[in-house]
Structures are given as structure tokens and as C-alpha cells.
């Protein structure tokens, strides 16, 4: 038996709990960086590694070697009679799950059976962010509660991955609109909300802010706070994204970008000094510094200025790449759909 889980925290606890079989911690961040349907293409992996190194500080060489090793282990799937996928409700995990289902859908499984354990809550854990919050005993209480998945889930997962890695967000919007009931009736009942949240990360038609940037500035409008407090409050409000700290620091430094910052971080001379997680960690006491909303940030919140037009953008959302001072795609929250910029 092979358990594929969403990171080392869950892997370590399952091993400590004596779970039957082998455990493979899947270390990827499909919610960040450039994606294509076929990530095995060398040029796709090279671009992905370069962008993640520049944006969130992961060593490109370490990233590529880590991906190669986990793919090597995945290719040995037919050594196992059962494979259990352990995931949760948020975009971070649902994108990971869709990748794996896409991968398995193109293989002959033979005698290997696939199972899924996917939860969006747990008794006594509030707010629930994910499996990593659970103790060893709590995780082990989920043992054998997984459910079988078959060709329907693999087909849906593969189609989700194709839509997620498309350069056109209308592909995802169309899929979600026309497959909502099918998703809800399958073992992928969390996918609709997670990938709808993905689309809402696009710059708004109102002010150029994605859902996470908007939540950040709204917290700051209530008063100054530290980067750590911001991270906690925003990720509590937007647990559907499953955003990690590296992603959040990258987003925060973008909002502080000179010469038109929407927020300022005390003790940093410029946005370039806070331009990446490695540099952020070198700033003494960074997590406890004060973050304040600027006048421009106020005007953007009031829809009187546009973040993209003021600061520019260079951001990947799955297969969508937005760059420059004009966003080719935006999110219309009233219509709940992406529109051309």
C-alpha cells in the first residue's frame, strides 16, 4: 500500500502513527508558478523552477531534483495493490489532487486500486485549514475511512487539470459551470469551490486586486498590524486557497512595490529589499514589523485607482500569465466569471 499525502507534516505523523504501507510526501505548489498540462517537458520544468526561485525563493536545482525523485517513486505505483490519496478542500490540495488524477488517468493501473481521503473539516478543529493541524491520533482515526475512486474521478480530475493549466480562464469557467453537478456527485465535491476561488485570484474589474490582495488591504484598513498577523487573518478568511507563507510573503512584497506602494512595511528601505522570502527572512524582526496602508492603497480599496495600472503585474495563475500594466484577464465578482481586460 502507498499513501500519497500533501506534504511532510502529514507524512511524518502517519509514519509516527504506524500507518500500514509506504508514505510519499508530495512536495509541489501547483497554486504558484507557471503550469502546463505536461510538466514532464524539460522546458516547462525549467521555466517553472526559475519562476518559483525568483518569486518564492525555492532553489531551482533543489526543486527540479525533488520533483524528479517524487515522479520516480510515482512511476513505481504498480508495486502496490492499493494507493491512497490524502488531501483536503483547498486550492493548494485540489490542484495537487487534479494533477495526480490526470497522471493516473494516462496509466494502465492493472490490479492497483485507487482510494481518496479528502476532508474539509474535523471535529474540534476551528478554523480547519488542513490535515497538518491534526495530531497523530486524530490522523490515525481517519485510517480506512477513504473511499474508492474510479474512471469518473480520474476523468474529472484530468479535465480539471487541463482547464487549470490552460492559458484561457474561460476554459475553467466553462468546465465548472457545466460540470458542477457531476463534481458534486463524485468524490471530488470540493473541486468546484476551490477552482472557483482560483479564478477569483485574477485582478478584479473594479480595482485590479485579486481576492487575497483585497483581503489583505481590508485587514489593514482596520489598523496597522504585523506581517504575521496579516498572514494569519487573511489565511483564516481565505482558507479555501490554502495559501502558504512563501506565497503570501511574495504577494505582500508585491503590494509594497515602489514607486507606487499600496502598503508599507516599517524598516524596509524599498520594496526591492522585501522582494523575496529569503530577503524577508534576513530583515531583522520582519514578522513583528508594522505594515500600514498607504493613501494609494485606500484609493484602490475605494475603486478609485487600479492596482495593475499603478504597479504593473507579473503573475502566474495556473496556466495564465498576466504581465505589464494591462491585465488581459480580470475577475468580475458580480457576474462571478473571468472577463477580458
From TrEMBL:
<protein>
    <submittedName>
        <fullName>ECF subfamily RNA polymerase sigma-24 factor</fullName>
    </submittedName>
</protein>
<dbReference type="InterPro" id="IPR014973">
    <property type="entry name" value="DUF1835"/>
</dbReference>
<feature type="domain" description="DUF1835">
    <location>
        <begin position="3"/>
        <end position="105"/>
    </location>
</feature>
<dbReference type="Pfam" id="PF08874">
    <property type="entry name" value="DUF1835"/>
</dbReference>
Amino acid at each position: 500500500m502507498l499513501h500519497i499525502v500533501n506534504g511532510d507534516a502529514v507524512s511524518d505523523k502517519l509514519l509516527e502513527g504506524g500507518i500500514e504501507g509506504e508514505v510519499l510526501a508530495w512536495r509541489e505548489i501547483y497554486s504558484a508558478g507557471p503550469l502546463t498540462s505536461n510538466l514532464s517537458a524539460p522546458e516547462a520544468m525549467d521555466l517553472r523552477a526559475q519562476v518559483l526561485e525568483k518569486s518564492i525563493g525555492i532553489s531551482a536545482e533543489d526543486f527540479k531534483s525533488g520533483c524528479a525523485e517524487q515522479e520516480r517513486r510515482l512511476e513505481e505505483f504498480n508495486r502496490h495493490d492499493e494507493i491512497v490519496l490524502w488531501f483536503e478542500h483547498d486550492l493548494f490540495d485540489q490542484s495537487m489532487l487534479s494533477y495526480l488524477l490526470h497522471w493516473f488517468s494516462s496509466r494502465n493501473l492493472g490490479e492497483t486500486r485507487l482510494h481518496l481521503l479528502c476532508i474539509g473539516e474535523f471535529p474540534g478543529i476551528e478554523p480547519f485549514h488542513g490535515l497538518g493541524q491534526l495530531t497523530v491520533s486524530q490522523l490515525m482515526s481517519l485510517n480506512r475511512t477513504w473511499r474508492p475512486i474510479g474512471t469518473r474521478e480520474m476523468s474529472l480530475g484530468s479535465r480539471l487539470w487541463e482547464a487549470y493549466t490552460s492559458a484561457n480562464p474561460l476554459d475553467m469557467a466553462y468546465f465548472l459551470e457545466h460540470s458542477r453537478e457531476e463534481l458534486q456527485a463524485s468524490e471530488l465535491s470540493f473541486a468546484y469551490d476551490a477552482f472557483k476561488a482560483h479564478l477569483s485570484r485574477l485582478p478584479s474589474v473594479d480595482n485590479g486586486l485579486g481576492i487575497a490582495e483585497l483581503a489583505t488591504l481590508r485587514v489593514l484598513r482596520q489598523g496597522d498590524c504585523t506581517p504575521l498577523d496579516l498572514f494569519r487573518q487573511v489565511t483564516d478568511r481565505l482558507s479555501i486557497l490554502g495559501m502558504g507563507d512563501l506565497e503570501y510573503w511574495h504577494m505582500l512584497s508585491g503590494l509594497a512595490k515602489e514607486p507606487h506602494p499600496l502598503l508599507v512595511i516599517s524598516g524596509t528601505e524599498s520594496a526591492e529589499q522585501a522582494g523575496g522570502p529569503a530577503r524577508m527572512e534576513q530583515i531583522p524582526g520582519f514578522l513583528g514589523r508594522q505594515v500600514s496602508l498607504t493613501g494609494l492603497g485606500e484609493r484602490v480599496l475605494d475603486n478609485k485607482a487600479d492596482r495593475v495600472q499603478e504597479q504593473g503585474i507579473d503573475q502566474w495563475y495556473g496556466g495564465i500569465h498576466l504581465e505589464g500594466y494591462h491585465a488581459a484577464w480580470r475577475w468580475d465578482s458580480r457576474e462571478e466569471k473571468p472577463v477580458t481586460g
